[in-house]
Amino acid sequence: MSALLLIAPLTVAADDLTAAHQVATADPALAAASMKAHDGLDDFLAKEANPPAGTSNYAVKVALADDQNGGVTVGGEPRNAEYFWLIDVEPEGDGFSATLANEPEVVRNVRNGQKISFKKDDIYDWTYMDNGKLVGNYSACAILLSGPKAELKQFEDRFNTKCSS
């Protein structure tokens, strides 16, 4: 099984948000990246709710897939899932709502700018900028570490971050 993962954070121009890679959902590096994101999720959500000075561009990544009834399934590892960055995260009941910030490539029952409701457990990754440095976006690093070194260096230089130690 594979899924489409968008790797660019939301701190770039709209055309950069379309950088997508087809990857196996069982990829060990992505599983480790998701666990790392999960471990820092409470701190991220606290900062997103009350952003410290110098931070911006908060976003979460969730998996969406078309369902058989013309709707969308949120979270989990559904077949033909596509991972989307969501911005403007707001508490909603026992979960959250946020705005879809990517153009769909596989999923057809959502559109850029659409509000999506989801649970905390549906969050696969998160990111924000802290004084010009990218924080989070662990899935991008997992993908880029296994690819061409030039792409990794370009990403690290552009977002003032290090994917490797």
From TrEMBL:
Domain DUF2314: 27-156
Pfam family, one: DUF2314
Record-linked InterPro entries: DUF2314 (IPR018756)
Domain of life from the UniProt record: Bacteria
The protein's name in its UniProt record: Uncharacterized protein YegJ (DUF2314 family)
Organism: Rhizobium halophytocola
